[in-house]
Specification:
alpha/beta; 5-stranded parallel β-sheet; UspA; Rossmann-like_a/b/a_fold; Universal_stress_UspA; Universal stress protein
Amino acid sequence: MSGTYIVGYDGTDASHRAVALAASLAKSSGARIHLVHVLEWSPYSFLTQEELAERHKRRAEELKRAESLLEPAAKELEAKGLQATSEARYGHAGELFCGIAEKIGDSQIFIGRKGSGTLAERLLGGLAITLVQASPVPVTVVP
């Protein structure tokens, strides 16, 4: 398979495992790797004008930090001879991964499993369950 491997990356051990598997498979398949870091954010908050201004300032800072996390990881993949791109986005992780996969087309999503989450995540489902249920492309959850 060629195409693009969309890999969730947040600098955790779980995301490193997902990148390692995707990179290994990309070497043999010729696929590109697109690293994605999602900053969860709900637009449905009731804030004052001052809180909103502070939130927008923090948002810009968080995006810069996320990009500084992605850039070295993408360069490391490129150093291994792989085509790598990256993006940091705000929003609902499940919706963003599915939207990126639909936009790219021929792709597959890789995410690392972080282990047990909160009880609410176990009952209602975390990102992995959301993607397995809603993704328009195959999803690989790396243990």
